[in-house]
Amino acid sequence: MPAGTLYRGREGMWSWVAHRVTGVLIFFFLFVHVLDTALVRVSPEDYDKVVATYKTPVVALLEYGLVAAILFHALNGLRVIAVDFWSKGPRYQKQMLWSVVGLWLLLMLGAIYPVLGHAARELFGS
Amino acid sequence: MATTETTAAGIGPVEGGSVYCVDNPAPFIEPPRLRTKKTPRSTRGNFEMGAWLFMRLSGVVLVVLVLGHLLIQLVLDGGVSKIGFAFVAGRWASPFWQVWDLLMLWLAMLHGANGLRTVINDYAERANTRLWLKGLLYTATVFTILLGTLVIFTFDPNIR
């Protein structure tokens, strides 16, 4: 651990950690995603072959994880902007974090069927 | 250290009544970044401030672009099941979605690259390690942005 840093171990720190981790994960996915999309310049068959793997149940679960990371990073990013630019932002940072978590949970519940539905139909039959 | 050329602006009253009075004046604390004629001109520029601002501005735009992208690709109209070459060709036939994807590519890559630059600065303690990691990061970033841009601009729906 780098010397001379202050880890305070409360909501502020953990949301910062989660923001970092989700940000790095999303960025690495982005590299792969640009590469797979670049296959449309190679041939329709190669592109469709790779995208077919994205429709398997295992990758559907990874997609759900990607949605989770992006939604948290987006909502918490808006909270960071509010903390920086809204005069009362720092005072309400905790309330805003719990609002972010609440909204995130709600959206993740809503994403279950659209993102994982096809995987469930494949696994258990429709 | 009190000086005569500045006033105590910025020091508000202490909550619950001041402990200072005429006989016991509050110590004057000079604003830490007060710029005077004697302050040497900064030679560093405002790159870090620009980067900080870019993260917030691009972040707001990306929330709209990326969540819209997720909604279209993973939720609406059968979710991921409908995606294929034909679907991509249909969307990139419209300049609107070309611009959407191009803007999303550039903003997301630059936003992510700057984020990872911060992470490298934070955790790589040796100057040489930082140099190599950032060299790798910038190379991969430029390559990916150029590749993605090329793909959007040269997309050919009748490739075969």
UniProtKB/TrEMBL annotation, chain A:
Keywords annotated in UniProt: Heme, Iron, Membrane, Metal-binding, Transmembrane, Transmembrane helix
Alphabetical list of PANTHER family matching this protein: SUCCINATE DEHYDROGENASE 2 MEMBRANE SUBUNIT SDHC, SUCCINATE DEHYDROGENASE HYDROPHOBIC MEMBRANE ANCHOR SUBUNIT
One GO location term (cellular component): membrane
Record's keyword annotation contains Flavoprotein: no
Membrane spanning stretches: 21-42, 54-75, 96-116
Subcellular localization: Membrane
Any one GO biological process: tricarboxylic acid cycle
Similarity remark: Belongs to the cytochrome b560 family.
Family annotation (InterPro entries): SdhC_prok, SQR/QFR_C/D, Succ_DH_cytb556, SuccDH_FuR_B_TM-su
Cofactor requirements of the protein: heme
Pfam families: Sdh_cyt
Top-level division of the source organism's lineage: Bacteria
GO molecular function: electron transfer activity; metal ion binding
Keyword Heme found: yes
The organism's taxonomic lineage, starting at the top: Bacteria, Bacillati, Actinomycetota, Actinomycetes, Kitasatosporales
Protein name: Succinate dehydrogenase, cytochrome b556 subunit
